[in-house]
Design goal:
Number of strands: 10
Protein name: Urease accessory protein UreE
Main location: cytoplasm
CATH superfamily of the largest domain: Urease metallochaperone UreE, N-terminal domain
Number of domains: 2
CATH architecture of the largest domain: Sandwich
Radius of gyration: 19 Å
Structural class: mainly beta
Keywords: Chaperone, Cytoplasm, Nickel
Order of helices and strands: EEEEEEEHEEHE
GO molecular function: nickel cation binding; unfolded protein binding
Distance between the termini: 58 Å
Family: Belongs to the UreE family.
CATH topology of the largest domain: HSP40/DNAj peptide-binding domain
Strand content: 35-45%
């Protein structure tokens, strides 16, 4: 039995150079902690990160021997959203906590018939495409987390985010 190389270190886009190979993953597959992956060149390896992490296109995973594997975004099923008031459409997408990739003349989201229906009723032009999906990372850094809890009592509103930016989110309304 062969032991697979292990990647325990992530280098963010712009902070590394010299990839030995590439792994192409869709948006959902780029959210991981421990997983066996196969590079585009056919080499298997194991990702074993300290915590569940959202990998971005252009990041690199460092194998135990120092080689770097570049992360690329795979083409996937998306909706291309256009309209006269794109800011309003983007607000409605964000209000539903839907990951989105914001471009100058359109917004990309993963295919979702419910969101598509809502957007069409807001007079959006919605079309289907297959392309890499690299949504915005959010206000507090990279990617997404499993937990985003909201209390529903009259004045409760709490967050459990996986980030550190010098203040808490526990506040009364």
């Amino acid at each position: 039995m062969t032991t697979l190389p292990v990647a325990q270190t992530l280098h963010r886009k712009g902070h590394w150079s010299g990839a030995a190979d590439v792994v192409t993953l869709d948006y959902d597959d780029r959210f991981l902690r421990r997983k066996r992956l196969v590079t585009d060149g056919g080499a298997a390896f194991v990702v074993d990160l300290e915590k569940t992490t959202s990998l971005d296109a252009g990041d690199a995973l460092e194998l135990g021997d120092g080689r770097l594997v570049e992360v690329r975004a795979a083409p996937e099923a998306v909706l291309v959203v256009r309209g006269g008031n794109l800011a309003r459409l983007a607000w409605h997408i964000g209000n539903r906590h839907t990951p989105c990739q914001i471009e100058s003349d359109h917004v990309l989201i993963q295919r979702d018939p419910v969101i598509r229906h809502m957007l069409e009723h807001l007079d959006a032009e919605v079309s289907e495409a297959e392309m890499p999906f690299t949504p915005e990372g959010g206000a507090y850094g990279h990617g997404r987390t499993h937990s985003h809890e909201h209390g529903h009592s009259a004045h409760a509103h709490s967050h459990d985010h996986d980030h550190d930016h010098g203040h808490t989110h526990d506040h009364a309304h």
